[in-house]
Structure formats: structure tokens, C-alpha cells
């Protein structure tokens, strides 16, 4: 470094003597000074950088690598086993499923509550939302029930058929019987009583197979109603009496009320109005006892119709008017029909006066 500076000083002195009055000499001298400073700085910095630069380690030998692997990793890679991974996946899927299932169940509960309150369109909306999350047969069956009540028979039929297929795939005999009975209800509503009887008979066989006495009684009652609609009143009464016996045997007050009401229908069709009134009155008492407002309204309406057939128009109007009040209170789909019946009865009474 000292020798370098000495040479530069000599060169500058020489140039100064030769060209002391030259402007170019001054510029050249300045450039030499700047170059000297740069060289001095570089010579000082490079050793400093080298001082802090880490000394490269020699590459590890194969033996050293093996020793390090055994020290930190063991004899084999410590990756999770396939069983451990499977367990983690199942837990994640289970957690995701449980979250979805909880939402679907809440939607179903809201739909079922709306259904019980005769808010059938709202119920369908909730059931549809639940089905978007999980497609299970119970959701289809419940949605089908709502469609049936609002007389959308095509949609009801589709939902019941889907439910039936899923129950059969799952080997769920109880659900299969329920779906078959529901399909029978659709065909009964459509006036296709032969087809209704076919489905009710299949449902009855399943309920007897699994020893479900309550649903066995319901299937017998449905068969009785279908035969009543066909005008086969003797067969209708036979089936309904079997349903009544089962309901009383197992203490099913709802089923007993339904059977008594159905017997009233059969005797009404036969023109045996006294017997019809007897059974309708017994059914009315049970429906009031258990708080079945729909059943209560139906019984009151049925009694009004019988008294109208007997020519006792004032009594007919009294019962039909009570039925209307019940149906309006619970927002029943029967409200319009009963209202129309009451208007007709009052119109006839007015003309007679």
C-alpha cells in the first residue's frame, strides 16, 4: 500500500514540473488522486469481508449422513403410518359430517313444526333445504306428506317413490312399510282405489312381519277406507273393526278415534245415520280428549253432514259452524270446503223460510 502511494506521488510531482501551467495537467492529477483513494478503500474492505465470511464446511461423507439420519430420524422415516392418516381423515370427515347433519336436523325440526301448524308451503321449504345437505328417506317422506296435504299429488308421488327406494336400499323394513302406505294414500286421493289397496296390502304385510301393531292398525284402517270408497261397505267395516280392535289393545287413542270415525263414514255411506252419529260422537270425544283439533273439526263436520241427510238442518248448521271455527283456528286446508258447505246449508234454510 505504501509503495503504491509513493509511486503515485512521484508521478504527480513529475507532471506538475512539466506542465505546471497546463489546465489538463490539473485535471489529470485530480483523476489520479481519486483513483488512488478508491484503491485504498478497496484494499481495506476486502480483508474485512473475508474476515466475516463463514468458512465453508467440507461436504459430509456417506457415513456421516447415515449417522445423522439414525440420530435424528431413527432406523426408518418417521412419516405417519397409513392407519394414522386414515384415522385423521375419518376424524375430519366425521367432524364435517356432524356439522352438516346438525344443520340439516335443525332445518327438519323447523319444517316439522311448520307442518304441525298447517304451514305446509313453509314446511316444504325447510325440507328442501335439509335435502340439499343430506338426502335421507325420512326427509323425502316428510316432504311428500306436505305435498299430499296441499294436493300436489305428482310431487308427493315422486318423493314417496324416492323414499321407498332409499329405504329398500338400506333394508329398512319399517321405513319401507311407511313409504308403501304413503303411496297408497296418494292413489286413494287420486281415486285410484285399486292401486291404493295394492300398496296398503303390501304395507300391511311388512308391519305384520316386523310386529308393528300400531302401523298394522293404520294399514287396516286405510284398507277399510279404500273399500268404502269402492262401495264395498261390508269389507270396509270388517277391516276397520280390525283396526279398532288393535288400537284398543295397544291403548292407541289416536288410532281408536280414527277407526271410530271411519266406521261412522261406512255406516253413513250405508244410510245407517243413527249408527254413523254414534261412531262420530265417540270419535269426537276422543279427539277432544287428546287435543287433536283436526280430528275434532272432521268429526263435527261429519256430524253436520249426517244431520243434514236426516233433514235436521238447524242441527247440521250448528255442527258445521263449530267445525268451521276449529278449522279457521288451526288454519286447516279444510276451511274453504267447510265454509262452502255452511253457506249452502244456510242458503237452503233461507229458501225454506
Mind explaining what this structure looks like?
With 353 residues, the protein is mostly helical. The chain has a domain at 296-353. It has 16 helices and no strands. The chain has helices spanning 2-18, 23-52, 62-73, 82-116, 120-133, 137-149, 153-169, 173-189, 193-209, 213-229, 233-250, 253-269, 273-290, 293-309, 313-330, 335-352. Helix 9 (193-209) packs antiparallel against helix 10. The longest helix is centred in the N-terminal third of the chain and has 35 residues, at 82-116. It is elongated, with a radius of gyration of 47 Å. The termini are far apart.
Order of helices and strands: HHHHHHHHHHHHHHHH
Main structural class: mainly alpha
- Strand count: 0
Give the end-to-end Cα distance, rounded to a whole number of Å.
140 Å
Q: Which band does the percent of strand residues land in?
A: under 5%
What does the average pLDDT come to? 87
Rg, Å, rounded: 47 Å
Q: Sum up the overall morphology in one term.
A: elongated
Largest β-sheet summary: none
Structure annotation, total helices: 16
- Low confidence ranges: none
Classify the helix fraction into a percent range.
Answer: over 70%
Amino acid at each position: 500500500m505504501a509503495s503504491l502511494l509513493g509511486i503515485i506521488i512521484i508521478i504527480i510531482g513529475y507532471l506538475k514540473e512539466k506542465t505546471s501551467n497546463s489546465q489538463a495537467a490539473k485535471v489529470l492529477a485530480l483523476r489520479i488522486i481519486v483513483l488512488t483513494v478508491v484503491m485504498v478503500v478497496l484494499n481495506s474492505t476486502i480483508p474485512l469481508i473475508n474476515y466475516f465470511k463463514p468458512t465453508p464446511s467440507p461436504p459430509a461423507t456417506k457415513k456421516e449422513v447415515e449417522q445423522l439420519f439414525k440420530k435424528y430420524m431413527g432406523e426408518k422415516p418417521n412419516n405417519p403410518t397409513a392407519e394414522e392418516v386414515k384415522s385423521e381423515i375419518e376424524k375430519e370427515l366425521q367432524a364435517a359430517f356432524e356439522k352438516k347433519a346438525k344443520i340439516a336436523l335443525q332445518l327438519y325440526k323447523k319444517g316439522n313444526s311448520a307442518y304441525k301448524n298447517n304451514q305446509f308451503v313453509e314446511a316444504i321449504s325447510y325440507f328442501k333445504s335439509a335435502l340439499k345437505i343430506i338426502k335421507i328417506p325420512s326427509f323425502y317422506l316428510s316432504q311428500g306428506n306436505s305435498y299430499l296435504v296441499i294436493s300436489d299429488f305428482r310431487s308427493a308421488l315422486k318423493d314417496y317413490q324416492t323414499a321407498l327406494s332409499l329405504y329398500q336400499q338400506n333394508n329398512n323394513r319399517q321405513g319401507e312399510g311407511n313409504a308403501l302406505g304413503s303411496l297408497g294414500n296418494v292413489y286413494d286421493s287420486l281415486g285410484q282405489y285399486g292401486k291404493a289397496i295394492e300398496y296398503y296390502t303390501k304395507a300391511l304385510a311388512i308391519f305384520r312381519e316386523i310386529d308393528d301393531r300400531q302401523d298394522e292398525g293404520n294399514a287396516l284402517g286405510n284398507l277399510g277406507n279404500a273399500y268404502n270408497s269402492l262401495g264395498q261397505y261390508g269389507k270396509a267395516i270388517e277391516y276397520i273393526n280390525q283396526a279398532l280392535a288393535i288400537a284398543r289393545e295397544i291403548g292407541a287413542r289416536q288410532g281408536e278415534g280414527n277407526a271410530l270415525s271411519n266406521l261412522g263414514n261406512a255406516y253413513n255411506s250405508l244410510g245407517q245415520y243413527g249408527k254413523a252419529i254414534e261412531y262420530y260422537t265417540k270419535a269426537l270425544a276422543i279427539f277432544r280428549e287428546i287435543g287433536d283439533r283436526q280430528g275434532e273439526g272432521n268429526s263435527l263436520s261429519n256430524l253436520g253432514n249426517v244431520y243434514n241427510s236426516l233433514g235436521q238442518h238447524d242441527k247440521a248448521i250448528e255442527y258445521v259452524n263449530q267445525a268451521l271455527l276449529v278449522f279457521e283456528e288451526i288454519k286447516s286446508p279444510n276451511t274453504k270446503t267447510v265454509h262452502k258447505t255452511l253457506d249452502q246449508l244456510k242458503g237452503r234454510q233461507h229458501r225454506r223460510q
